[in-house]
Write a structure and sequence with these properties.
By secondary structure, this protein is mostly helical. The protein has one domain. It has six helices and no strands. It has helices at about 1-10, 15-40, 40-50, 55-90, 90-115, 120-135. Helix 5 runs antiparallel to helix 6. The two termini are about 25 Å apart.
Length: about 140
Amino acid sequence: MIIIIRKFETMIPQNVTFLFVLAFFLIVFLQSGLDKIIDYKGNLAFLKNLFKAFFPPPLISVALISVTILEIISGVLCLVGIVDFILNNNSHIGFLGLIVGSLALLVLLFGQRVAKNYEGAKTIAIYFILAMIGIVLA
């Protein structure tokens, strides 16, 4: 019982916010990464069509695989980071998850900007801001 009470003592607003940011990116990146794996051919066809004027098809394939790996790694690190933070009050794994996720967001942002999809780039910018908040809270 004392251990449980001590865990709740660490639930100051900054810590709760950090956990919610991790949970947000756990959902975002695992869902996105798994979608890219499950519908790899569909995602690849969409991206090849979107970027055909800017990049050669093999580079688009490599970029899709790279982003997928970054997203899955980030999602898993955010999940492990939540558990580690709750059990050990350690934010290092969650911090790494947000760093890897931020790299994925930068790659996605680059692609959106090259394709002149400014609405998509705005959405990624919002996610990036939230990731920076999580990094500061770590």
